[in-house]
DNA-binding response regulator
Amino acid sequence: MITAIIVDDEQKSISTIQKIVTDYCTGVEVVGTADNITSAASLIASLKPQLVFLDVEMPYGNGFDLLNSLSEINFEIIFITAYNQYAITAFKYASIDYLLKPVNIAQLQAAIERAGQRTTEKLHAANYLLLKQNLKTEDKGEQRMALADSNGQYFITIKDISYCVANGSYTFIHLYNGKRYHASKNLKEFEEMLPQNSFFRIHHGHIVNVLHVSKVTSGRTGSVIMQDGKELEIAARRKKEFCDFLAG
């Protein structure tokens, strides 16, 4: 049984999460609730929960202030947020789980399942710092992304991504400086995350950052030549749309 606490300044939100957990998440028990970071810190110290549902914005201190006040974070965290879609991208870039208000059953069940799978992969403080920085950075190209592979976790700036190449359920991320990372997300996930004003999926197998395209070849389909010399095919059905995209 996973023990959990809920930290949220809205009683309605606490009640909703508590009811969903009780009725639909048999492997989780809510052992306490708090409506501010001071009482939350006391609860965490005394109850030692395995999972914390944490509201981002609260009066008299936010969720990050709570985490900063703790000597160690030895529990899973699922953030609760009412942020808009722009800010949700910041959560995805930082590889941090979240629930959108109003919380629904499917969202909560999926988040708990993911938390249960991360038995030994506690999120590093760097991920929370990355999230804080991204939420303050309006230019998505200047935001940074956490990439995980079998060797660890890396942090890259979005605008430095030159192109992405599908590799089954994984993706090769190529940077403008020649570095390459094998990320544990599929290409569709990157397509949904990356800024749509500069990244374009020209083929089922790759996405390009138009800021790093040096040439577009002619022909029925054609291809793009990236700044590192890599040639990537453009799917016939995407050719016109891509050219229109480049034309602005």
